[in-house]
Amino acid sequence: MSKFTFRYGIDAPFWVFFSLGLGLVVSAASIFGLPQSILGLLFGLFSLLQGLWMFAYSTIIKIRHRQVILDLAGLERGSRVLDVGTGRGLLAIAAAKRGCQVIAIDKWSAKDLSGNGKEALEKNRRAEQAPPIEVMDGDVTSMPYEDRSFDAVVSNFVIHNIKSKEERGKAVEQMWWVLKPKGTLVISDIARIEEYTAILEGKETIGEVEVRKVHYTYPFSRIVVARKKF
Question: 125-151 burial, b for 16+ CB within 10 Å, e for fewer?
């Protein structure tokens, strides 16, 4: 069972605390206000539940979710792994603990994850007693790696944050470009899944693409698993 921890930050912190605050205010106003409102109470409770679920994902659920992602990537000891949008090291640290050679890259946006930064990743790595991880500042749409460099490329709740469809396409292209033959790309995300799969299914080098629905995260998410043929 996953343990409660703030170690990996709060995802979308503004929306988590906005939902919690809105839920509390509207619920209280609907119970004690004049006039009292059943619809207002229901809306307030829904907003409160939404915020609590998002908070639970950040502090409990994603610790389990990272193992699901890495299992789907088929990691083996010694595998060379790229974690795209690593944040505070959620996937990178777990992969390193499995004996993989890990490189982690990010732009470190505090808007998308509270306390985001290389210092937090290193602190978490030491706390989990994971082997060293190569950490780099970088943009997923233009990564400084050669073609066919990694056995697996993984990413969690990252690509949808790129505003432009063209730039999201570049990101997926880059992740596929650096993947070795027989390698596996795993993208876990809450939106834009159809865009990712359309790009991957059009690749000559594609072996297979599957999409798995996930209902324990909030928002609900899906995981794209793409394997490279050659």
Answer: beeeebeebebeebebbebebeeebbb
